Amino acid sequence: MATASSSTSSSRPLKIGIIGFGTFGQFLSKTMIKQGHTITATSRSDHSQLCSHLGISFYREIDGFLEAENDVIMLCTSILSLPEVVKSIPFHRLKRPALFVDVLSVKEYPKQVLLQVLPPELDILCTHPMFGPDSGRDGWKDLIFVYDRVRIRDEIVCSSFLQIFATEGCKMLEMSCEEHDKLAARSQFLTHIICRTLSEMAIESTSIDTKNFQTLVKLTESTTNNSFDLFCGLFIHNRFAKEELKNLEVALEKVKQKLHDRMNEELGPSVSRI
Ligand SMILES: NC(=O)c1ccc[n+]([C@@H]2O[C@H](COP(=O)([O-])OP(=O)(O)OC[C@H]3O[C@@H](n4cnc5c(N)ncnc54)[C@H](OP(=O)(O)O)[C@@H]3O)[C@@H](O)[C@H]2O)c1
After folding, report:
1. Is 152 helix (H, G, I), strand (E, B) or coil?
2. Category of 131 on φ-ψ map: left (φ > 0), alpha (ψ -120 to 50) or beta
3. Which of 19, 65, 87, 170 could disulfide-link to 59, CB 3.0 to 4.6 Å?
4. Is the beta carbon of 23 within 6 A of some atom in ligand 1?
5. How crowded is residue 203: how many other Cβ atoms within 10 Å of its Cβ?
């Protein structure tokens, strides 16, 4: 059952290391810096120029990154690359235990990977900020932040991390990874699959757009701005997404059938046969 948390009050400045400095890692880091946290980053690609511009120490090698004594290691890699990335971390290089936080858009899968691969002394917080660079462009107020405290011993570090989002005005929702995936398959995944389908049809503005159609075009554009890897991850690693895809196909058939039935009633079967 989801609950709005009240356990996010105590906080201190954190040293946060980001693994995977792509679109979403960059987006989150800007607010964290604004709040006074110290950020380091490492990534497959070289983001050193952007990092130096933002005041972030960028490490090409993971060893140096792990030795930077971070309080939090935030995993912002693609869903698909998570196991490869996590299994390649030389945990013995950590100077002290850190809180590992993932921000993946699916939740049961990273929970399972992190519990399997991380040494038992490392804390785990599974999270999903339900917003991105588009929806969070003008601030995070009233946007939803979902989290599951999978294995937490250092309460101060965990609550300081959660406080980053609470301070920005996010709606903090604590829920199990399973419950998140069930709900997200029926909301976020459906949004993505419908927008990818409309994009495949190359829908675009016309000279006679209704307001609703303009909304649909905008939604399609912003949704398909996310990487194709992210979309695939939402499907492959959320066990509830397959069922929702089936439900969508069945529903489309039902709607088509209703239209054909009504056409038969209106025009007669011989005229309306398609
Ligand atoms: N975008 C959003 O609105 C949003 C919102 C909430 C949560 N998230 C989650 O945040 C994470 C990042 O999302 P994103 O939008 O930045 O795009 P993404 O395509 O899901 O992930 C891109 C990131 O993954 C890294 N990556 C991809 N393949 C890799 C591989 N084989 N080995 C190592 N690293 C690899 C990239 O590294 P390089 O940059 O070094 O190439 C980059 O940092 C995802 O897990 C996503 O589900 C995204």
Report:
1. coil
2. beta
3. 65
4. yes
5. 15
- The answer to whether residues 159 and 252 belong to one domain is no
Q: Quote the ligand 1 centre to 212 CA distance (angstroms).
A: 31
Pocket test for ligand 1, best of 50, 76, 78, 180 (most atoms within 8 A of CB): 78
Domains held by the chain: number? 2
Atom of ligand 1 nearest to the CA of 132: 3
For 144-172, the pLDDT digits (tens) are 999 999 999 999 999 999 999 999 999 99
Please report which residue ranges of the chain form alpha helices under DSSP H: 23-34, 48-54, 62-66, 82-87, 108-117, 155-167, 177-184, 190-200, 211-224, 228-236, 241-267, 269-272
Give the β-pairing of 57-59 and 72-75: unpaired
Is residue 246 domain-resident? yes
Q: Does 272 fall in a domain?
A: no
Are residues 53 and 143 both part of a single domain? yes
Would you state the structure tokens that stand for residue 212, as one six-digit string?
């609703």
Does 81 contact ligand 1 (Cβ within 6 A)? yes
The pLDDT tens digits of the residues spanning 53-104 come to: 999 999 999 999 999 999 999 999 999 999 999 999 999 999 999 999 999 9
